[in-house]
Fold this protein.
Amino acid sequence: MRTRLGIARYLIVSVLIASGAIFVCSHDASLQAGETNIYKTLDIISDVITIIQRDYIEKLSSEKLIQDALRGMLASLDSYSHYIPPPEPKGTPAGGVPVQDLGTYGLEVAYKNKLLTVVAPIENGPAWKSGLKSGDIILKIGEESVEERPFAELVHQFRGSASKELLLQVARRGERDFLNLTITPAKIEGPAARSEMLREKVGLLRVTRFDPQTAPRVADCLKNLKAAGANGLVIDVRDCPAGDTAAAIAVAELLLPHGELIATLRGRTEGGSKEFRSQSKPIIERGPFVVLINGGTSGAAEVLAGAFHGGKKGMLMGQKSFGCAFEEGSFNLSDGSMIKMITAVYETPDGQEIQDEGLDPDIEVPIPALPPETAEEKKAEKKKVKEKKEEKPADPMVQRAIDLIKGIRIISPKEKA
Amino acid sequence: MTVRTLNRVVAVCASLGAWYLLVAVIPFPSPAVDTQLKKDLDFFVSGMDLIQRNYYREVKGSELAYGALKGMCAGLDPHSQFMDEEIYKEMKIETEGAFGGLGIEITIRDQFLTVVSPIEDTPAFKAGVRAGDRIIEIEGKSTKDLSLVEAVRKLRGPAGTVVHITVMRAGTGELLPFAMTRAHIQIQSIKDAKIVRDGIGYVRMTQFQERTGRDLEKALQELKKKGMRALILDLRNNPGGLLQIAIEIADKFIGGEKLLVYTKGRIRTQNIEFKSPGKAAFPDCLMVVLVNKGSASGSEIVAGAVQDWGRGIILGSTTFGKGSVQSVLPLPDGSALRLTTAKYFTPKGRCIQKIGIEPDIAVEMTDEEEIQLLVKRRLEKMVSDNPGGKDMEEEKEELKKLSDVTDVHLERAVDLLQGLLAYRGSSSGSGTDKLHAKKGTTRRLNAL
């Protein structure tokens, strides 16, 4: 009985709506051929709007419904693409800050398993100094719970040149209690990269962020390492979030021979795809190269690491990278609202998409399991670390990388020559 | 078994039933040309076209449309929802309370898919599946990474089809393969119908499904045969269900063409009065309705009607307060809309949205007490479903620990009814006619 009534009722709606579809058909000439499906799709949309406007307990304008529809449509694509409604007469102008700009807090956040997660804080940046770590799960911003709020809205709180202190409640693996951290915003300064000669004549290049200062700084570092006789290089881009992909390309050019493919930007529009090849003479061209990556390696750092993907030019070591390397496009709609979406994604020279997938390391080094600790044990541990501060503990991953470089030198003497 | 795992089972059960259905024929407005809608649709098309042309990978129009519909309904209220085909199917199964399957309740315990209990007279029960059995494989595939929902989906299917599972028996560790033919399984929404003390019957109702009215009638007739003179109707943690069924149930006790509930929407066609069709099946047995903050929508309609007509005593704690009615509107592609179309009001015109029904006799139970009670009930059922089972030691041990846990609401209700039965017994000794002539308390009692 119920079903039959429902169908009868529906048929009438369909009849009513058919005229709408015809209207749209004659009106919108920009639709491409082969898109006949769009009429069917539109039928459902306009049916539902009609039903909501007629039956819903409150009266709603079709304008609001369409805005919510656009919001839902973009949210269904991925967690970065979003809709920005037209500006309120008095409010801030529509726009927003590009995803790559980590602003004055210096951290990248993303949804992982439906939880708002810290991809990584920039080393020595404000978030890093507050004690925030890669993998922390953000529960509250100020007093507000982050649940059920759209990512685009949340992410704005972390971007741009804010001057307010940011209070975060986070959950951390291995910690029984939630942590309350305060991030004091500041301009991110200090060198974007540093270098060091390790044992066995292996050079270490640590890049902490990708911005316009990065490539010149890396060039200096590489010159120093070359002068010191580096024979093999460890490039450490662990916990290096988002950033400027142009800087990553520029850094790759310092390491790869002229003409070598660094990355491909792949979009669907004409002219939306682009190949990036090295256009200058590298400072250090000969490896072996080992690139250290982990779950906090994201965006520009992944583009750089991706240039060495596939094992021909170097090896990736560590843990799977985060999987976020795209270009965002902004589109204005006629009512002043805006669509922001992923228009192109980066691929490694051997054709692997980085977005969502992340880069798999050639040599996986698992994260050491955390032993269950009591509060007292932890205190004792902290004390120990403090006492030992003078002699820096060896980074096991760097040690493994040095071993690998040494091993490669031994088994391939030709390459050495 | 820990309190936490049981808790999760309870949570899953509760979250599935929280919808509401109203069917009303609504005449359509004349197909006037809505120019605003056309303009807005045009705008929508421009946005959709933009995405299809510029997004980095190809997306189907239908995918985008579903995203748009979800977004549109997400902007309404928490009870309105766009249901894709799969969710709509699940909803229909829930409302009908019947599906093709094996007849086992399952949960995930210690990371294993575990049988909570086989339902009597179902394929699983007949094949010898037991409470505590761990389901290791379904159709030859490991269940290791299956979620509870995915497992349920794999086990359900049309009646008559065969499903192969391998279980590991708790205690012995034996691996036992089963091949079972799926049958039509009925989810029972009427539970624990029994006489709890001399002449006092008890019935627990977990949902308002299509068959709930008939099943309640049957259970009550049975109890009547066993000498029931007073009834405790337990609507605690009952999240609601079908509006018609809530009305059918209120009618069983009230009758007499009395108003049971009415709805009011934005448009006049949504304003409907629901009256008792005639003679009630159980018009005069003494009655206590148990409610708590988990009693919502349909439960609140029944409790509200009983309270407003003074037909029974509401005992427990204040109910949830869901005063809106949703309609389900199927769309031609197999999806459907669930839309809040009206608010409902008790016979005396109370809107209970966010307020709930206040019990006549307030008896508070803490969350901890309620959870322990649910755990105890579940354990008792597992032990009684599996008599003499060696593997039930752990459960029996847990039960012992919970021996002090009592159902405070139920005890208060039993005591009250016992008192009222005694009172009615002594007054009715002087004859029914006389009782009617009296005013005040006796009249109130008659109404009970």
